[in-house]
Design a protein that fits this description.
Distance between the termini: 148 Å
Structural class: mainly alpha
Shape: elongated
Strand content: 5-15%
Radius of gyration: 31 Å
Number of strands: 6
Length: about 290
Amino acid sequence: MQGTVDGFSYGIVTPLVAYLMACLGGALGLRCTTRSMLVARSRRPAWLALGSVAIGSGIWTMHFIAMMGFTVDETPIHYDKPMTFASLAIAIVMVGVGIFIVGSRGARGTALFTGGTLTGLGIASMHYLGMAGMRLDGRLEYNTLTVAASVAIAMLAATAALWAAGQVRGVLWSVGASLIMGLAASGMHYTGMAALSVHLHGTGAATAGDSPASLLAPMLVGPLAFLLLAGAVMIFGPQTVLGQPDKPPAEEKPGVPAHATVPRQLRRPPQTVRRTVRRPARAPQNH
């Protein structure tokens, strides 16, 4: 029996909040990626790790906020907690690999293509693994072409977002990149949901797992607390917000001493002005 699926049971509220969460995580994560291109090489891993967790937490939270509006009329929906949090882990790991490539090699050429592809695949893997953790009295089936389209949307939009973040041209470019990253996550999610159909078993058997309401508190409190902490790190770093690079370390500039001093320009001694005293001409003497 075909189940009656409704992905917008709360109207536009869940898609809008989900998109904003994806943009928030993308803004913080991509800004960290931009920051990593401007700091010393020894400090890059910390910024890239922070960025990968921010993006992973943002898109994971986006997914499950959107899923709060997903219902099947004929059966209740529950979620398997280990599978649900495994989707968060795979999002952080795969997105992390993608932005580490871009952060270390630059947002261009093969590095951009590889990093964007892995980041998009991380978003798609998080989505479908999260869907695999859904428990109901039926089975899920997907349209292959629509699934392929959802993955392509994630990869293309993620690549565009990483390219925009790699331009290092100020806050407006970062905002644009975060909006594209939100589009990558949300566009992929709802395209993937359009590929879904539910075939009910009709047994009426109870399904095991946690309900969406019981998952809502830990789902929001944990990632939101981290995103707020990451946002505080970004806000209280003025150079990060303005996109200004750190002072290049001396060890990365061969031939320049650690404390190079610029000699002061020697002042020229004051010139002595010689005054010429004109004596009055003597009148000729008549003999």
